[in-house]
Write a structure and sequence with these properties.
This protein has ten helices and 19 strands. By secondary structure, the protein is an alpha+beta fold. It has two domains: 137 residues, Probable inorganic polyphosphate/atp-NAD kinase, domain 1 (Rossmann fold), CATH 3.40.50; 156 residues, Tumour Suppressor Smad4.
Length: 314
């Protein structure tokens, strides 16, 4: 088997602890060929995988959520898709945590034991994301925080900058949203989240009780309100699952989002600026990712339930 290690030298933790040498040593009995590519700038990982990814059985990201997002955008463009391995080496590592790769040793163990599952991803116009889409409110924090701040404060840098947004002017987010079977909602919102994750900014999302890695995005719209109440609603929802009348919540496999003003969106922690309507669709059974055993058991349980429901309908 052939492995391509993709290392992001600009990730939150930077290059230290000789992690690449450690990974090569740990996996030398698993892979006959181990090549290493160090990022050369924004989107270079996507470009590297698009060009050479089909030559490998597995591509491994060493970085944070942005690194994983770049890898997914490369893999999903290939006809022969390599499997994805995630080594957590960023600031929050939400995708790694959601797939049971919280620590480096655990991630290596999952690879050695050939534990993997199909990861649902979402196509957004001509790009892809794995766990989250957001706009408004605190959605731009992940790319506003400087690398220096992340190196010093870790994920606390995100939390501190989130609090700063309370003192900033409210974002003007007017959206028209169509989803699934001719459902429509339109209005002004403080914040929009569309997630398929157990973790957000390193914190476990208590507001979403459903199983991770479904084919549907869990959409939460916080209606337009004062920035203080909007921020508190967001924090209470994530930390404690608290809901109120200012929130609109639904699940959807397909979304069409039209912003009335030019606004920024966040996909897996990366800035995404659409020039037109966002067309978001769910894609299943195309990308394999190494994960912990519990997720495989949950997937089998879900498939069994789906087959049972299908038989009942037939």
């Amino acid at each position: 088997m052939k492995l391509l290690i993709l290392f992001n030298s600009f990730s939150g933790k930077g290059y230290k602890d000789n992690i690449i040498d450690y990974l090569k040593d740990e996996l030398k009995d698993k892979f006959e060929v181990i090549d290493v590519y160090q990022t050369e700038g924004e989107k270079s990982i996507t470009e590297k995988i698009t060009a050479d990814g089909s030559n490998y059985d597995v591509v491994m990201t060493v970085g944070g959520d942005g690194t994983v997002n770049e890898a997914i955008n490369g893999i999903m463009r290939l006809e022969n898709k390599p499997r994805l391995a995630i080594i957590p080496h960023g600031t929050c590592n939400d995708i790694a945590k959601s797939t049971g790769n919280k620590r480096v040793k655990k991630a290596i163990k999952n690879i050695k034991n050939d534990l993997y599952v199909n990861l649902n991803v979402f196509k957004i116009n001509n790009a892809f994301f794995a766990y989250g889409l957001a706009t408004g409110g605190v959605s731009n924090i992940s790319y506003k925080v400087s690398k220096k701040a992340k190196n010093v404060l870790g994920k606390n840098a995100y939390y501190i900058n989130s609090i700063k947004t309370v003192f900033e002017r409210n974002p003007k987010i007017k959206l028209s949203i169509d989803y699934d079977d001719n459902n429509h909602i339109e209005g002004r919102f403080y914040l929009m989240l569309a997630i398929n994750t157990r973790y957000l900014a390193g914190v476990k999302v208590r507001g979403w009780k459903k199983t991770y890695n479904t084919s549907k995005l869990h959409v939460v719209l916080f209606k337009e309100q004062h920035r203080i109440t909007g921020f508190l609603s967001f924090v209470l929802y994530v930390l404690f699952g608290y809901k109120n009348k200012s929130m609109v919540i639904f699940d959807a496999e397909h979304l069409k989002i039209t912003p009335y003003e030019r606004v920024e969106f966040n996909t897996d922690g990366e800035k995404f600026e659409p020039r037109r309507t966002l067309d978001i669709t769910s894609i299943s059974n195309e990308l394999e990712v190494y994960c912990k055993k519990k997720i495989i058991r949950l997937e089998k349980k879900r498939e069994k339930k789906a087959d049972k429901e299908k038989d009942t309908i037939d």
